[in-house]
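User: quick one, fold this
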Amino acid sequence: MSGVSLAFIAYPTAIDLMEGAGFWAFLLGFTLFLLGIDSSFSAIEATSTVICDTAWSGKAPRMFIALVLCIIGFLGSIPFCTNWGFILFDVVDHYLCAYLLLIIGILQAFGCGWFFEADVMMAKSDGHRKAIMFLGIFYWTTLIIIGTATVFAEEAIIGMAIYFPILLIAVIAGKFISQLDWRTYYNEVMMCGVRKIGYACSQMGRSDKKVMQCWEPAFVLYWGILVKYVNPMLLYFILISIFKTDLAKPYGGYQVYWQAVGWAIPIIGFVIFILSFFFMAEDTVLDYTEFKLYDEMTSEEIDALNEQEAKDKEKE
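Assistant:
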């Protein structure tokens, strides 16, 4: 038992059998209330940030945007308080967590591993461009084909087992396509994007900003491989597995119209994601300055950064 049934059936039933059931029931309800408030804060903040980054930025105060989002959220929550609200909640919860969150995870991994800094690296040489394009197209095409085919054939484990050897062959082929030396190929093609983000994270623990710690390359390799190659693969296999299960047996045994409501959630979310590209400000450019590595800075920039950090600590 998990999800909705665990929080609203199993736990309340168990609490009802305990001594001081009223107190524990209040504690459970208050905990769920705080979790809801916390989720609301993160949802409103993330959504308002995206809206403020669009072409409409500056045309409405951020506080007003947050107010409108809160009103929309309040109105949208009313149907969950009706007699059939629990069924609606159960269906929305399933399709939201099973599909939309997984899709978001895949897109985030795509953004970090296959989109971030790709334009900079591809501009370095024709070899960079060809190798990055080859790896990207090969990775996502084979993932979709092998993942979908093996899951529907009920051989998902075999699919995951054969995928990585094929990917390894593609990575080696990309090296020869790029005509770069192995070090450059590893840093600027194979680990394009995730390498810089990884070091931007690991360098925060340095006592001397110019001295790399011994564990950093291993961390970046581990983190980068997971984010760029492993996580999208696992999430896609899970997504297709859930999709196959829901096709064979509709979730919860609910009527078709409830399933339609559930499917509308990930579909609307994905459509909103696509439409957001058409509302971005025309002068929006990718900014990599926040990910500038200490090793790329001059001594003057390091000194200025140290002075700024010292001033920030004094203010605290």
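User: anything notable?
Assistant: The chain has a mean pLDDT of 85.
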